[in-house]
Amino acid sequence: MNTVKVAVLRAETDRVFRLANSHYHACVGVREVQGWQEVANRVLDESALLSCKRATAYDLDQWTSAVQALKDRLAASVERLAQLQGKDAKPSQRPYFEGSKPLRKLLAERQNPLKQFDGIGLKALYLFLKAGHVAQVNTGTNR
Fold it and tell me: Of 23, 89, 107, 113, which one's alpha carbon is 20 to 30 angstroms from that of 30?
């Protein structure tokens, strides 16, 4: 056991909370999450050896909740890592969902900015604009 002063215990508590809450959410890719997992495991190993004789009940409660939060984030990071690895996989390695094609079609229709021009024919509008013609818009005011 490594006996430390109260100030050191409080600083380590802040460090563990910051690692569990801020640093974890800042990880973007697979390598960053794996690196975070290594650091979190190292910090948990170091924290198991800390003790403080003069710490108050509040300090010890904060310490145990910080360590528990880090353990929970470590467990959640395994699932997040699996999701990131599936996301980074090549299209042939990704799982295929039966319902994915209608959903993609629905999303494409919702994101189509020219959907409002369906009455005049999108192809005619496209050819008109491609030819370099400028379309005039009637705003309803006479000048």
Answer: 107
What letter does residue 4 receive in the DSSP assignment? Answer: -
Four-CA torsion 103, 107, 109, 112, nearest 10 degrees:
-160
What residue ranges do the domains of the chain occupy? 2-88, 100-130
Largest CA distance in the chain: 86
Q: What is the mean pLDDT of each run of 10 residues along the chain (143 residues)?
A: 92 95 91 94 91 94 95 94 78 51 56 53 62 52 52
Q: Is pTM, for the whole model, over 0.90? A: no
State the DSSP string of 60-108: HHHHHHHHHHHHHHHHHHHHHHHHHHHHHS-TTTSPP-TTHHHHHHHHH
Residue 9 to residue 55: CA distance in whole angstroms: 8
Select from 36, 18, 16 the least CA-distant residue to 76.
36
